[in-house]
Amino acid sequence: MTPAPALDRRGLWVAAASFVLWGVMPLYWHLLKAVPSLQIVFHRIVWSTILVIGWLCLKQGLQWWRQAVSKPRVAWLLAISGTLIAFNWGLYIWAVNAGHVVETSLGYFINPLLNVVLGVLLLRERLNAAQWTAVGVAALGVLWLTFNYGSFPWIALALAASFGLYGFVRKIAAVDSIPGLGIESAYLFLPALGMLLWSETHGQGGFFGGWGLGLDALLIVGGALTALPLIGFAYAVRRIPYSVIGLMQYIAPTMQLLIGVLAFGEPFGSDRAIGFVFIWIGLAVFAIDGFWRSRRRAAPAAA
């Protein structure tokens, strides 16, 4: 019997770094609190587009673009996914700087389970008893928070829905992760650049001297911080089991929750804790079931 292959340590570390980087992003966007949220999003689009497309063209010329858009439906699907991710970014950055970090973390805790629901409804995937139990328990947590949160958690649900639909569109679009990100960014680049130029010429921007070199540099680096975790995720997902990725994806919202409570002092009373506990139990059931089924599938292959 041949032993099961060892985990790719580099892939594991790259995945962990990507999720940690996503997890600490609230601290970064908080440094940009003086900049209007919408302009942060526009800068994020512009600088990440320059970085991603510049890197792709340096490595492959324009061949990557021709290969991607030659596939059926890719062009318009990526236009939809680009719009969804731009909405997600905008809402997330606004929520962080408006003092709703805990609620944003709730959205990204809900997202994996929403992906399961989308798979059942739109891709006709089937769930086993453990997965239905996980979805049901997490749904109870969301309902509890809805009625006991103090206000309807629309930020969390909108973040989960927009990122869930983004992932669904990217799943059915037959294109690799990095070229797909490049094409999405290209669709958004000119509108974002136009809005930035309009803001600067109408006295609503401050990139050219108004905000200072420190904030300008942070805005530019924000483009790299947008692209690098996505590139790292694309690298890691090809090298380590997807069940491991599934377990590691909860690093980011856990860190966001801790930052919201410990660093920004957001309230986290018993009412919120009860709802989160239900969601965590659902996630634990879902993750353990996925890991167990992955091990069972791997055993005959290793024999």
TrEMBL record:
<keyword id="KW-1133">Transmembrane helix</keyword>
<feature type="domain" description="EamA">
    <location>
        <begin position="11"/>
        <end position="146"/>
    </location>
</feature>
<feature type="transmembrane region" description="Helical">
    <location>
        <begin position="12"/>
        <end position="29"/>
    </location>
</feature>
<feature type="transmembrane region" description="Helical">
    <location>
        <begin position="244"/>
        <end position="262"/>
    </location>
</feature>
<feature type="transmembrane region" description="Helical">
    <location>
        <begin position="41"/>
        <end position="62"/>
    </location>
</feature>
<protein>
    <submittedName>
        <fullName>EamA family transporter RarD</fullName>
    </submittedName>
</protein>
<feature type="transmembrane region" description="Helical">
    <location>
        <begin position="218"/>
        <end position="237"/>
    </location>
</feature>
<keyword id="KW-1003">Cell membrane</keyword>
<keyword id="KW-0812">Transmembrane</keyword>
<keyword id="KW-0813">Transport</keyword>
<feature type="transmembrane region" description="Helical">
    <location>
        <begin position="74"/>
        <end position="94"/>
    </location>
</feature>
<dbReference type="InterPro" id="IPR000620">
    <property type="entry name" value="EamA_dom"/>
</dbReference>
<keyword id="KW-0472">Membrane</keyword>
<comment type="similarity">
    <text>Belongs to the EamA transporter family.</text>
</comment>
<feature type="transmembrane region" description="Helical">
    <location>
        <begin position="130"/>
        <end position="146"/>
    </location>
</feature>
<feature type="transmembrane region" description="Helical">
    <location>
        <begin position="274"/>
        <end position="292"/>
    </location>
</feature>
<dbReference type="InterPro" id="IPR037185">
    <property type="entry name" value="EmrE-like"/>
</dbReference>
<feature type="transmembrane region" description="Helical">
    <location>
        <begin position="152"/>
        <end position="169"/>
    </location>
</feature>
<feature type="transmembrane region" description="Helical">
    <location>
        <begin position="106"/>
        <end position="123"/>
    </location>
</feature>
<dbReference type="Pfam" id="PF00892">
    <property type="entry name" value="EamA"/>
</dbReference>
<feature type="transmembrane region" description="Helical">
    <location>
        <begin position="181"/>
        <end position="198"/>
    </location>
</feature>
<dbReference type="InterPro" id="IPR004626">
    <property type="entry name" value="RarD"/>
</dbReference>
<dbReference type="GO" id="GO:0005886">
    <property type="term" value="C:plasma membrane"/>
</dbReference>
